[in-house]
Design brief:
The protein contains eleven helices and 14 strands. With 488 residues, it is an alpha+beta fold. The strands form four sheets. A five-stranded antiparallel beta sheet has the order 3-2-6-5-4, covered by helices on one side. It has a five-stranded mixed beta sheet with strand order 9-11-12-14-13.
């Protein structure tokens, strides 16, 4: 599960967002509804244009001689039917000769402009309130009054007539707004709860289920990812823990298997010589063998097996001691070339008896390093001894000491059959039976290479096994040098 944590927000941030959502959303919805109701009650476009109204007014003012003509009045009335104008015409004696107004009740207010008066009127035939303009035009011929025209038209606001359908707007601006806010809050709260349930509670339940399964040893779990950083971090941590537990359990099972194999190998290696010793001693006790030479041969076999048992017990003790974490090294400064030569002196006679050419080459001397002389001597002796087991008569065992990349590199090669490819990786495991080092005929205890690896590792070194170009076995050791070592 690959997850990018940098783009996820913390739980605290999500709660702040949820709080802001609950706080703002209801008011925002109320604002939108109120704004919409205000827009619906806003002024609507007037159905008559200014030009049409002006044409009717000019028709009235320029045809005063036709005011009492019935045909002219019919034409005027037809035009007024498509207009909001209300017109009253009076003769010179103030007698009304024409009117298209349903009633004559009106309230006049003085207009600061000449011959114009502005009046507020509420018409009983309309369901809205409006502001009207009354104009009184006196038609003169010199000083003689020919007639008076009163023209009444609705006053427009920016070219729109004021609407009076404000009942919904008044309701939403009052108690209706509270109701809308309440339902908006409930819906917002439910949305927040849905988010918490889906992205927090459900995820945590899956995490809890996964933890319960891990507790019972079931690692087949499906950990969820989440947009909440803490939940996602928890899933990632549990996933890492699951992988580590799987690795640890696999290592434990492998260690248990190796432990059982080691115990079985120890039992086998101890039982075989003990069985031989017991059998030969019983034969001697019962007098089965009476010839002196056979008695000596039986005693020699028992002695050899006793020496082998002693070597095996010593190797087991050394292996268990080196495996302890509190094991400390008695380090001192060692001149490596002379140290290896001293180890070789213990094998000179064996080399002569086995017709093996044992040599030590070095590219620079002296070479100084720090280590435990006793343990290092044991490690080198194990490698030389192991090489003797597989080098045929007339063969060569070559030791090489040199400095490579500011490290001491020590190699030992033989002209034996070499390692099998499948044995190169587990060759340093205790009691490994894949190669001939586990063969009792060679005299090995099966712990020599394992002990050598532990000694080299304790000195912060490395050890590797491979085959030389000629096909023989080759083991390479890398060890740190002393800081005072002269590389020249």
């Amino acid at each position: 599960m690959k997850i990018d944590l940098s783009r996820r927000l913390s739980l605290r941030t999500w709660f702040v967002f949820a709080f802001m959502f609950l706080l703002i959303t209801p008011f925002l919805i109320v604002f939108i509804v109120v704004s919409s109701s205000s827009a619906s009650s806003a002024p609507q476009p007037h159905e008559q244009t200014f030009e049409h109204t002006n044409q009717i007014i000019q028709m009235v003012l320029k045809n005063v001689s036709s005011w009492e003509n019935p045909k002219w009045q019919s034409r005027l009335r037809a035009k007024l039917s498509t207009s909001s104008l209300e017109i009253r015409l009076f003769d010179a004696k103030h007698k009304m000769i024409f009117s298209n107004t349903p009633n004559d009740l009106r309230t006049m207010v003085n207009n600061p402009y000449p011959s114009m008066m502005i009046q507020s009127n509420q018409s009983s035939s309309m369901d809205f309130q409006a502001t009207w303009i009354d104009q009184e035009h006196t038609i003169l011929n010199g000083n003689k009054i020919l007639g008076i025209a009163e023209i009444k038209e609705p006053m427009t606001i920016y070219g729109h007539k004021v609407s009076a359908n404000t009942s919904f707007h008044d309701w939403i601006s009052g108690p209706g707004g509270i109701i809308v806010w309440f339902f908006s809050f409930v819906i917002s709260f439910l949305l927040v709860m849905y988010f918490i349930g889906k992205f927090l509670i459900s995820k945590m339940k899956r995490v809890e289920e996964s933890v319960r399964k891990i507790n019972f040893g079931d690692f087949d779990i499906d950990l969820p990812s989440s947009v909440i950083r803490e939940v996602n971090d928890l899933s990632v941590s549990l996933s890492i823990m699951k992988e580590n537990l799987n690795t640890a359990l696999a290592a434990r099972d492998q260690a248990e298997q190796e432990r059982r194999l080691m115990i079985a190998s120890i039992v086998h290696d101890l039982r075989t010589p003990i069985f031989t010793i017991v059998g030969y001693l019983e034969g001697l006790k019962k007098g089965i063998v009476k010839e002196a030479d056979k008695v000596d041969r039986y005693i020699k076999v028992c002695l050899d097996k006793s020496i082998l048992l002693n070597q095996l017990v010593t190797d087991l003790f050394t292996y268990s001691t080196l495996d302890q974490p509190e094991q400390t090294l008695n380090c001192e400064k060692i001149e490596w070339v002379a140290f290896v030569d001293r180890v070789m002196e213990g094998f000179r006679l064996k080399a002569v008896n086995h017709y093996v050419n044992l040599t030590h080459h070095y590219t620079v001397s002296p070479i100084f390093m720090s280590g435990d002389p006793e343990l290092l001597m044991r490690a080198i002796s194990n490698l030389v001894e192991n090489a003797f087991h597989y080098t045929p008569e007339g063969g060569n065992i070559t030791l090489l000491s040199e400095i490579v990349n500011q490290q001491l590199q020590f190699m030992i090669e033989d002209t034996g059959p070499g390692f099998l490819t499948e044995d190169l990786e587990p060759i340093f495991k205790p009691f490994y039976r894949g190669d001939k080092s586990r063969n009792r005929k060679t005299g090995g205890s099966g712990l020599g290479l394992s002990i050598t690896k532990q000694i080299i590792t304790a000195h912060d070194g490395e050890i590797h096994a491979d085959n030389s170009k000629e096909g023989g076995a080759r083991i390479t050791i890398l060890l740190p040098l002393c800081s005072t070592n002269n590389d020249d």
